[in-house]
Specification:
alpha/beta, Rossmann fold, GMP Synthetase, Chain A, domain 3, nine-stranded mixed beta sheet
Length: 501
């Protein structure tokens, strides 16, 4: 079982269909893509001498080559490590070292950050080396065991360091099948638009769209631009795309005219953060009933629950606001369970931790058996999210027990920010929480206790963070306080800080 076999099968039956489109221009059809992928696979295995299971990292903005490299890596029986291109250099270095990276592909804007490295090969897509890879003799599709590592997804670190969730070929194949059975249909020749990062959800949806012979369109900017999106919606057929709630809010609030009669929009699959009911109603009013919500985690990506298009229209037996506040029902291959703190399953209507079981759940954390044992117990993945399932099977999330902040669809863990700030000599204590924000979902706020005898400003804190963590993780607000609220054991009471906000 090799997930890259999806491309081989589609290329065999639909060779001339457009496969990858750079904005408006054809990049490769399916036959050409299959040939390019096999050539890159041959280069990795034969020229670089990589062996089955070796890790190939991608630090790249969205571009057509992303698909070539990702599928080439998998075709070769290697493991892909797609890394968020917005991370800090120190974060990149940790992941590359932790994964034991053998080869790193970068877009040209990262070439100065990653010069020639003795520990791993560095290949820029604009280099002669990449051109050689594309012209290499093709390698036959390499067989893989179902549980062989395919995708190593690094989550943000609740303990200060990210963990690598190991996704197998089986995980990705079942995720692909679950898309068709639980999320949406895909027609041959339709379109997936990659406006969100391909290192995350959008990249995972490469697989079901490859399986159906859809065209993969990369936005010209390589990112999310409202004007670009609206224009592309008029150009390509039957467009679907994945978006974080903040992206949908930007589209809804944009003053760019949108003509539903001229649009080829088919589906917007959204997730990665809370979608407020009022925001979804505004989106439905502007775009019509084209929305599907998914709930997932890096440990079982895109495949826990789904709120379908039909659900967005409402049901006679459930108030519409309650439906839109939920994240839908369990996807086809998934079992859900709500459990209390003592390990007892809870009935419908009671709040507890959300547990997940199924063939989409990761095989474990890379080189971290302790974290794996804590997270997967008796085959059940402990999500750390608190939720409730109603009598009809709809899951509504109530809180995040891990204190995760979701800003713009991106996960930010407070402890990572706190640890960066605590390295400053002037900071005695710090606690980071999320503040509700109408545009971003949440923004990061840091409550800081200054060491006696020191002075500190918000600007100094901001500069400190920018030198140590990714820009999007830094606090938007620094609040200086005399002390932090704590319980009798000394634990900071974040709920009291949230009340202040």
């Amino acid at each position: 079982m090799n997930i890259a076999s999806l491309l081989s099968k589609t290329a065999a039956k639909s060779s001339t269909l457009p496969a990858v489109i750079d904005g408006y221009e054809l990049h490769l059809n399916y036959l050409q893509l299959a040939q390019r992928v096999a050539s890159i696979a041959g280069y990795l295995r034969e020229s670089l001498g990589l062996a089955a299971g070796d890790r190939v990292a991608l630090i790249m903005k969205n571009c057509p080559q992303y698909i070539e490299i990702l599928l080439g890596t998998l075709h070769a029986g290697l493991a892909a490590v797609p890394i968020n291109a917005k991370l800090h250099k120190m974060e990149f270095d940790f992941i590359l070292d932790n994964a034991g990276t053998s080869c790193l592909f970068v877009t040209d804007d990262f070439t100065e950050m990653f010069p020639a490295n003795a520990a791993y090969s560095v290949i820029s897509i604009g280099s002669y080396q990449y051109a050689s890879a594309c012209d290499h003799a093709p390698l036959p599709l390499q067989p893989c065991e179902p549980d062989a590592l395919a995708w190593l997804f690094y989550t943000s670190g609740t303990t200060g360091k990210p963990k690598g969730a190991m996704m197998s070929h089986r995980n990705l194949m079942v995720m692909t099948q679950s898309y068709f059975s639980s999320v949406d249909d895909i027609s041959e020749g339709s379109t997936i638009l990659h406006a969100a990062p391909m290192s995350h959800g959008s990249g995972l949806y490469i697989f079901p769209n490859i399986a159906r012979g859809a065209r993969q369109v990369i936005s010209p900017s390589g990112g999310f631009d409202e004007a670009e999106i609206f224009d592309l919606l008029k150009h390509h057929p039957d467009i679907s795309f994945f978006a974080a709630p903040t992206m949908i809010r930007r589209l809804v609030n944009s003053n760019i005219p949108y003509d539903m009669t001229r649009s080829h929009l088919k589906s917007i699959i959204y997730g990665g953060g809370p979608m407020y009911v009022s925001d979804m109603k505004s989106a439905l009013a502007k775009f019509g009933n084209r929305f599907i919500q998914i709930y997932g985690q890096g440990e079982t990506p895109m495949t826990i629950t789904c709120l379908t298009k039909k659900d967005h229209l409402g049901r006679d037996d459930i108030p519409l606001d309650d439906l839109l506040a939920s994240v839908g029902m369990a996807q086809m291959p998934i079992e859900l369970r709500i459990q209390d703190g003592e390990g007892n399953a809870l009935p419908a209507g009671e709040i507890g931790e959300v547990l997940v079981r199924g063939d989409t759940v990761m095989i474990g954390y890379w080189a971290n058996p302790e974290a794996t044992a804590e997270t997967i117990v008796d085959g059940w993945l402990h999500t750390g999210d608190l939720g409730v399932i109603d009598e009809f099977g709809y899951l509504t999330l109530k809180d995040r027990s891990k204190d995760m902040i979701v800003s713009g669809g991106t996960n930010i863990y407070p402890r990572e920010v706190e640890e960066a700030l605590l390295q400053h000599d002037a900071i005695a204590e710090v606690s980071v929480v999320g503040k509700p924000d109408p545009e971003w979902g949440e923004t990061v706020v840091a409550f800081i206790v200054i060491q006696p005898g020191f002075e500190l400003t918000s600007a100094q804190c901001d500069a400190w963070c920018l030198d140590r963590i990714a820009r999007f993780k830094r606090p938007k607000d620094y609040r200086f306080v005399e002390s932090l609220p704590k319980n009798n054991t000394g634990k900071v009471l974040k709920r009291e800080l949230r009340k202040l906000l």
